[in-house]
Each structure stands twice: as C-alpha cells, then as structure tokens.
C-alpha cells in the first residue's frame, strides 16, 4: 500500500545561501517549504571567501547590507612577475548574505529550523533530530562546592526521550543543500563520492589595496593558488586550498608577513571545496512501497517514469559539486542551479536535464584545472606574459569567468599563444 503525500511539500536540508535561495523560490511558487539546518545560527561557521563575479546580478540584486567590498582589479603573481587586470567583482559578508537569503525565504513563506540535523531515511519518512536539547540537572553541595548531576528520571529516560524527539516527516520532494559531504548525495550516488580540496583561510589586519585582489600561482600552492581578498584597507581574507593546506598556508602567510602585507590574525575559517564531477547524479526518482509481508519494511526502487514516482530526491550547490574547479567559487553556479531546480519542481521538468548548460560550464573549469595542475613555475610565468596585453585584459574585464565557454573562445582568438597550453596538456 502506498502512502499519499502532498505534492506541494518540500523538505530542504541545509540553510546556506543555496538552500535558502531554493526555499525562497519554491515558496514563491506556492510550495510548503521546510528547511532544516544543523548549526544553531545561520551563516556560521564561515567557510568561504565570499568573492563573486558580476554574474550574480543575473540572479539577484547586490544589497549594501551584505556587501563587504567592491573589487576593481586583480593582480596575479608568480615569483617576481605580476600582471594586473581590471575586474568588476564583489566581496560578500557571508554572515549577512546568508541571513538576508534566510529572511527572504521566510518572508516568502518558508519555515527554517536551526539546530535540526538530518539523520537519514526510515521507511517512507525523513528523520530529523533536534539538537542542543537542554537537560535538567539536580544540584548537590559537596564540601561547599555545587555538584551538578542528571536527575534520575532524565538519566533513565535520556535515550527514550531522544527517540521521542526525533521528527519523522513525509514529503514528496527532498532537497540536499547540505555541503560536500551531503547525506542525500550519498543516497542518490551510493557508489560514488565527490573528491575535494580543503580551503584554509584567515582574516588578517595589515596593509591592503582595497579594490585589488591578489592571486599567487606556482610553488606557493601547487595545484591551486594563494589569495588575498581585501575587505578594506586594513583587513583581508588570506588563504590557500589544497589536499594538505596547512603546510602551504604557513609558507604563504610567512611570505606575506616578510613583505609587511599581513600583521595581526583576526579569525580562522576552513572547509572543504568539492570537485565538480559530471557523472555525479543530482536527481533521483523513487517509488516507496510498504512491504506488508515482511514486518512493514519499506522497499525503495529507482524508476524512470516521473508519473509513477512518489518521492523525488535532489542535490544542489556544494552538495552536488556545483563549484568552479579553477577558482573554488560555488556561490554563482549554486544559485543558478537552485533557480533551475525550483523551476523544474514547479513545472515537472527533469532537473538533471535542465542544468546541462551549467554543467557544461563547470566541466570546462574542471578541464582547465586539470591543465593548470600540470603547470610548472616556468609555464605559469609564460602564461602571465601571454595575459599581459591590452586585448586579453579587455576580454577579462568584460567577460565573467562564470561564462567560461564565451570567455575562452574570445581569449583564444585574441591571443593564439594561449592555445599552446591546451595542446601541451593533450600531448
């Protein structure tokens, strides 16, 4: 016997910017949306540089309330060589940005629950565990000191109460926006796992050019790069990304200290940066059936026809690897896919098919990352020389890296020498 489930019910795991934006878009379309976030406060912990291209304006307006800084230039370094180019980009205050999107989602009718962790699936129900439940303690005075202990009934029934507090939710649409280690991603891709780097970033006081980001290539951080992204003339976000970031971060920070660029540490942020994988599935349709002959167990079967499905699982944002492999940036592609996902659910379209254009762009970034990972210091120096002409600089100023196909096409026509780097990778 099949359970009847409200087709307008949506459950989203993760209240980051992509999860909240998805919730907002679906709530505007009349869906009953509930968002569950395991952390106690939206926007914390911060694990992102918050740098976005002008392409974000195609999705939403940039508000002063969450804008930390505007970037007009990027200076790219390798050894003692550098090239400066013009850009139009933005540094977001991630805490304010995330909360802005959360409030927008709530204004549109979505409900957001913090300190609620997605545990998994049981039968045809989503299991959500409320966290930070306060237990009552008794106090005893021993040698003048107050000793706290669990009350007898609380201690005896703690496990039982945990089971009682477990939320069991039935919904037709379950969306995972729960980061690179997404549990829903594992349900959709049981035999596959996204690879990732770890980004390590620290906010420093120092001396910075407010409208210029600095990118450091080569031996300072092999297979990725180091960055300095200013919030102001006095503070900047400084970081690297790698499979083993600690050693490169220390080397990078020490080099900046010697140049009197950074001084006092303010705060540390770190987090995984997933690799995009075009074969990683982002959508699964299931039929959930109760097996009355076997102790009411539930059978889950993947199907092809959406008409016979009664459960739909999706992943979006970092959970789906929607990240540019060249830079580690995931906000713009994540928001793009969130908008497509909301439209796909509302219109009954296949989400996997609808995001093919975004996936093509991200695949180009992955190919470029594989190419750059083969570069020596000499190759990077030659690349900087190729970028140091007015034609290339004008293209980089006018075209966003979030539109990689258009950008690369124009770059190759403007500077044919760039094509030899691709040929080198092929051969």
- Estimated radius of gyration: 24 Å
Question: How large is the count of helical segments?
Answer: 12
| Widest beta sheet: strand line-up | 3-5-4-14-15-16-13-17
> Main beta sheet: strand number and arrangement?
8 strands, mixed
| The CATH homologous superfamily of the domain at 196-273 | D-Amino Acid Oxidase, subunit A, domain 2
Gap between N and C termini, in Å?
59 Å
**How many β-strand stretches?**
20
User: What is the CATH third-level topology name of the domain at 196-273?
Assistant: D-Amino Acid Oxidase, Chain A, domain 2
Using the 3D structure, state the CATH architecture of the domain at 196-273.
2-Layer Sandwich
User: Based on the structure, what is the oligomeric state of the protein chains?
Assistant: single chain
Weakly predicted, low-confidence segments:
1-5, 134-160, 290-308
Write down the overall geometry.
globular
CATH class type of the domain at 196-273 = Alpha Beta
Helix content: 25-40%
> Helix/strand-derived class?
alpha+beta
Strand content: 25-35%
Mean pLDDT, all residues: 84
Word description of this protein:
- The protein has 12 helices and 20 strands.
- With 427 residues, the protein is an alpha+beta fold.
- Among the domains are: 126-169, no CATH class; 196-273, D-Amino Acid Oxidase, subunit A, domain 2 (D-Amino Acid Oxidase, Chain A, domain 2, 2-Layer Sandwich); 374-426, no CATH class.
- The protein has an 8-stranded mixed β-sheet with strand order 3-5-4-14-15-16-13-17.
- β15 (226-230) and β16 form a beta hairpin.
- The longest helix has 17 residues, at 331-347.
- Residues 1-5, 134-160 and 290-308 have low confidence and may be disordered.
């Amino acid at each position: 016997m099949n359970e009847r489930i409200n087709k307008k019910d949506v459950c989203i795991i993760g209240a980051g910017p992509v999860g909240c934006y998805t919730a907002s878009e679906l709530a505007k379309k009349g869906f009953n949306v509930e968002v569950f976030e395991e952390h106690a406060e939206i926007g914390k912990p911060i694990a992102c540089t918050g740098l976005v291209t002008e392409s974000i304006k195609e999705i939403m307006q940039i508000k002063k309330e969450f804008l930390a800084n505007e970037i007009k230039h990027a200076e790219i370094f390798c050894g003692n060589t550098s090239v400066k180019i013009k850009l139009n980009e933005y540094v977001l205050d991630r805490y304010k940005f995330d909360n802005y999107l959360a409030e927008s989602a709530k204004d549109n009718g979505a409900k957001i629950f913090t300190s609620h962790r997605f545990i998994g699936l049981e039968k045809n129900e989503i299991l959500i565990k409320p966290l930070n439940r306060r237990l009552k303690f008794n106090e005893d005075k021993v040698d003048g000191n107050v000793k706290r202990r669990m009350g007898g009934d609380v201690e005896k029934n703690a496990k039982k109460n945990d089971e009682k507090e477990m939320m069991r939710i039935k919904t037709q649409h379950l969306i995972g926006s729960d980061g690179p280690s997404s549990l829903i991603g594992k349900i959709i891709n049981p035999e596959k796992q996204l690879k990732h780097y770890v980004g390590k970033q620290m906010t420093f006081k120092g001396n910075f050019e407010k409208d210029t980001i600095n990118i450091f290539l080569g031996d300072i951080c092999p297979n990725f790069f180091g960055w300095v992204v200013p919030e102001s003339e006095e503070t900047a976000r400084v970081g690297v990304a790698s499979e083993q970031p600690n050693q490169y971060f220390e080397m990078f920070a020490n080099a900046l200290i010697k140049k009197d660029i950074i001084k006092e540490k303010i705060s540390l942020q770190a987090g995984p940066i997933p690799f995009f994988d075009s074969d990683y599935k982002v959508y699964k349709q299931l039929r959930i059936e109760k097996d009355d002959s076997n102790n009411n167990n539930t059978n889950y079967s993947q199907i092809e026809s959406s008409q016979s499905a009664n459960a739909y699982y999706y992943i979006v944002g970092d959970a789906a690897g929607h990240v540019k492999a060249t830079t580690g940036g995931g906000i713009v592609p994540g928001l793009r896919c969130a908008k497509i996902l909301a439209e796909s659910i509302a219109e009954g379209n296949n989400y996997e098919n609808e995001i093919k254009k975004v996936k093509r762009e991200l695949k180009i970034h992955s190919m470029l990352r594989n190419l750059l990972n083969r570069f020596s210091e000499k190759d990077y120096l030659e690349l900087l020389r190729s970028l140091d002409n007015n034609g290339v600089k004008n293209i980089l100023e006018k075209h966003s890296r979030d539109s990689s196909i258009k950008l690369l096409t124009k770059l190759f026509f403007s500077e044919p020498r760039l094509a030899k780097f691709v040929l080198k990778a092929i051969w």
